[in-house]
Amino acid sequence: MAVIPLLADMHSRWKRVALLESTLGLLSWDEQVMMPSGGQSWRGEQFAYLASLLHGELVSPGFSETLSELERSNLTEPNKLASLKEARRRQSRAVKIPVSMVEELARVCSQAQQAWALARKQSDFELFLPHFEKIILLKREEADAVGWQGHPYNALLDEYEPGMDCLQLDILFGELQGPLSLLVSQARDLAGNKKSEQPTGNFPIELQKIFGESGARAVGFRFDAGRLDTSTHPFCSGIGSGDCRITSRYQTDGFLEGFFGVLHEAGHGLYEQGLPEGCRAEPWCQSASLGIHESQSRLWENLVGRSGAFWEHFYPIARAIFGSSLDCWPLERIQSCVHAVRPGFIRVEADETTYNLHIVLRYRIEKGLLDGTIPVRDLREAWNCLFQELFGIQVPDDRNGCLQDIHWSGGGIGYFPTYTLGNLYSAQLMRAAKRDLGDLEEDFRHGNFARLLCWLREKVHRVGRTLSAQEICQQATGAPLSCGPLLDHLKAVALN
Amino acid sequence: MAVIPLLADMHSRWKRVALLESTLGLLSWDEQVMMPSGGQSWRGEQFAYLASLLHGELVSPGFSETLSELERSNLTEPNKLASLKEARRRQSRAVKIPVSMVEELARVCSQAQQAWALARKQSDFELFLPHFEKIILLKREEADAVGWQGHPYNALLDEYEPGMDCLQLDILFGELQGPLSLLVSQARDLAGNKKSEQPTGNFPIELQKIFGESGARAVGFRFDAGRLDTSTHPFCSGIGSGDCRITSRYQTDGFLEGFFGVLHEAGHGLYEQGLPEGCRAEPWCQSASLGIHESQSRLWENLVGRSGAFWEHFYPIARAIFGSSLDCWPLERIQSCVHAVRPGFIRVEADETTYNLHIVLRYRIEKGLLDGTIPVRDLREAWNCLFQELFGIQVPDDRNGCLQDIHWSGGGIGYFPTYTLGNLYSAQLMRAAKRDLGDLEEDFRHGNFARLLCWLREKVHRVGRTLSAQEICQQATGAPLSCGPLLDHLKAVALN
After folding, report:
1. Which of A130, A131, B4, B382 is the most exposed place for a label (fewest CB within 10 A)?
2. Is the domain of B215 the same as that of B116?
3. Does A38 touch chain B (CB under 8 A)?
4. Which pLDDT score, from 0 to 100, does residue A195 have?
């Protein structure tokens, strides 16, 4: 069969996949931002049904046949090859995992999430244990069904970060662990560390939203192709071509958390808005990996948004909006506190330095749970022991320890490493951007983020999935991913 | 085959239909209330794909076979019989209308809506004419495909108001026309009609939203199972069990239009929230017809919301919210102005009396267009001539005449009569409620709407689709639908 109709068939099937996925995306955005509580149960049914339609598309025999024929043809165009590879990756994962396993996992996780919520409330891991045992068992079965080499964890990781494996993660995270632990202990030892303070006062949420929107707009987030709303957990969701939605959350006694939340999600949003246009229906027009996605959010949140020059531009805007609430917080004090190292127990509250130690811990535990070297019933002990080793402080209870994250109760094993991969990619990309563009500080000082965004559009966003995460890194920075740039950045800012 | 598995099969198929319809409902709500403009084109693709899946479910041969077997069985339970009847009605309509016709109509309407928007802007019917000719041709084909007796219009009407036909409409609308025209001309002749004024001033939209929400809450709209938002055209959409969303629109120079918009949509919302619970997946658990749906919105907007007693309760609330903006508008002036007859050219701005004349006009024109007695090219003349006859005033241009409504450009022929049917049902239901419950004025005066809502829940909402619209009317009021109650109400309020 000729290649053109085969490509057309692949694209029309993929378009249905994309239409269903984006509709699922809207159902989820709406659930988190808009839906009244009474809609919960019906929304669950909508999810389950649309997910089953999506699965049906992926496992349809015709899809596999088309892909096989295309694989036998001599495609050479990079976009088409990348599309074929991605389509096969999704199709093959869907075929290998039996529907019964997907349904069983959904059932188990639905109960596990309720049990986890209660267990966390009561700070008692034992309540969650039987559910988590079932989840780990099912995730092992999933890894075996997908197939793996080296370590079963690789099969799970591949869903989020294609091309990454434990071998590389062990090296990268191994290089991070020592220097980060040292930084954290040095920061803790700094007597009278004033930097750990955050501005407190009364910051009305309506004003914070205005400030947040001004930040998102300034870095280039397009509001004619997106929205900014409020939700319990900040997130970014591409609802479809030309429609990308971000959220943040706000507390009245401080404004930095909400603002950095906006910058973080706007970073994700800039990536989504910069993906190849007008052909969402082709598999190559996607983000390269979750790690690269996270690199974009971290770059704008941490490397741009926490820079001194950034605040030279934004401080006057914050003063104009918040007025006398900032009287005790001159520019210099803000610039200093945004980098403060504050070792704590909770990942989502962590500063940019300690954050990565939280991820190293979770990675080591997930690997152990999956290969059985950490029995699930020993999770609490393993967690607390490792936390002591990495942070030098003792976990007081399960709520501040192994029960803090929602990921595991939802079956999300293998996801955490993408957060630190994002930090690593972001630092290496930023170093390369400065190499190529020269003085970006001067740009930021004048609220000009267009040159940086342009560079990211070219090197990362418009590439879509034609390159792997590692290839994007190599092409944009001239070197494979390494820990140097991130460690250099953190050393420079953490102890000043 | 045994009846139980057949019923289970019908229900599981219907549930998929309901899940897809409610997802389409969310896509539409989101488009009108939340979506950034950039999402337009992808949203169109989502609509088209999900609509094709929905059509596929309805026309699947297995569905028809299951229904046939159930029809041969001896079902006796009213709910199950009603479900079977409704499932067959939908299935049979979907099978009779070829996909090619549906797609052609969608294509033609998509172009027609753009042409209509331009034509209305330029107030030039000729620009819309060629598109509307195609639409009328296709709607005639649709009527023939569905099949009809008496008049092709019946085939289109049946989609919105099952059981209603031209024979009955001709009688009802014939009875309305004379007395309404008389009322309108009497109102116009009343020298110095002060009632036609509306409160003007500065009514900030945020305050109007608070007032609107207090109104919706007071009549019983549940916000844990619903939302109230803002959109260009007010609407109500049941997104799923436990999730019903209403909208209104606000202008800063007056507050009544926005408030009555909320009450109107809240009336629809009360019906949706009162439908049989927990079994949305069964065909009988739906509204009986668009006419009955509209009766609920009109009842709360006009018969409750415009009553003197209602304003005795709500006027102090309005004063507390709007303050001195109401200084020149004491209670009595509000009570009087909400019933003012103000003959005008635009349907959506019409008062409760003239409104029905706008519908009579559209009904007579639609019938003529469909049976060919009014050639499409003569629409403008037919409209203007009939308007003169009914309202006694001359239409100045097409924008204020035959181009004012969006319905026709979207292929919505046969929909308009349900508005006046809703008014007729509402007046007859209200009279019966007063017969059964005694003095409701005293309830309203104290902001107590629970007894009336309870009565509607029992007589209308919880009935679902086990009775037809006419049967609901007969059972609740003891008489078939007639014009008496509405005309009595309008005569009582319009000329006071």
Report:
1. B4
2. no
3. yes
4. 47
**B window 269-298, beta carbon within 8 A of A:** 280
Average pLDDT for B332-344 = 89
Say how far apart CA A45 and CA A110 lie, in whole Å.
13
Select from B43, B53, B240 the Cβ nearest to the Cβ of A42. B240
Domain endpoint, select from B124, B152, B180: B152
- Residue B186: band (very low, low, confident or very high) from pLDDT cuts 50, 70, 90: confident
Do both A347 and A467 map to the same domain? yes
Both tokens of residue B106? 């969608």
Please tell me the total count of domains within chain B: 2
Residue range A289-308, pLDDT digits in tens: 999 999 999 999 999 999 99
B49/A contact by beta carbon, under 8 A: yes
Task: Supply the pTM of this predicted model.
Answer: 0.93
What does the mean pLDDT of chain B come to? 94
Task: Measure in Å the smallest separation between the Cα of A13 and chain B Cα atoms.
Answer: 12
DSSP characters over A371-396: HTSS-GGGHHHHHHHHHHHHHSS---
A162 lies in the same domain as A66: no
Structural contact between residues B473 and B337, judged by C-beta atoms closer than 8 angstroms: no
Whether A206 has its CB under 8 Å from any CB of chain B: the answer is no
Final residue in a domain of this structure, among B106, B131, B152: B152
For B33, the closest chain A residue by CA position comes to A34
* Spatial distance between the Cα atoms of B116 and B127, rounded to a whole number of angstroms: 8
Nearest C-alpha in B relative to A48: B19
Structure token digits, residue A297: 């959010």
Q: Which domain holds residue B463?
A: 153-496
Distance of alpha carbon A263 from alpha carbon A269, whole angstroms? 9
CATH code of the domain containing A113: 1.20.58
- B126/chain A closest Cα distance in angstroms: 34
pLDDT tier for residue A280 given thresholds of 50, 70 and 90? confident
Across the A:B interface, residue pairs with CB atoms under 8 Å apart total 110
Are B301 and B162 within one domain? yes
Catalytic residue status for A265:
yes
Cα A258 from chain centroid (whole Å):
17
Q: Do A39 and B243 touch (CB under 8 A)?
A: yes
Nearest to A46 among B19, B30, B223 (CB): B19
Categorize the per-residue pLDDT at B279 as very low, low, confident or very high, splitting at 50, 70 and 90.
low
Q: What is the mean pLDDT of residues B136-145?
A: 97
B38 chain-A contacts, CB cut-off 8 A = 222, 224-226, 241-243
The residue among A15, A28, A239 with the most chain B CBs within 10 A of its CB, best to mutate, is A239
Helix (H) or strand (E) holding B210: helix B205-219
Instruction: Tell me whether residue B42 is exposed, middle or buried, using C-beta atoms within 10 angstroms of its C-beta: 0 to 12, 13 to 18, 19 or more.
Output: buried
- What would the two tokens of residue A336 be? 């200093």
Query: Inter-chain contact B225–A42, Cβ cutoff 8 Å?
Result: no
Q: Which residues of B are catalytic?
A: 265
What ipTM score was computed for the predicted complex, to two decimals? 0.92
Smallest Cα distance from A226 to chain B, Å? 6
Residues A327 and A368 in one domain: yes
For all residues of chain A together, what is the average pLDDT? 94
| Residues B164, B22 share a domain | no
- Tell me the torsion sign for CA atoms A309, A310, A314, A319: negative
pLDDT at residue B193 is higher than 80: no
Taking the Cβ of residue A47 and every Cβ of chain B, the question of whether any pair is shorter than 8 Å is answered with no
- Cα B335 to Cα A166, B267, B301, B306, B329: the distances in Å are 75, 20, 14, 7, 10
- The answer to whether residues A147 and A167 belong to one domain is no
Whole-number pLDDT of residue B99: 87
User: Residue B492: which CATH number?
Assistant: 1.10.1370.30
Q: What percent of chain A has pLDDT over 90?
A: 87
| Domain identity same for A20 and A136 | yes
Contact with chain B for residue A21, Cβ under 8 A: no
By the CB < 8 Å criterion, does A12 face chain B? no
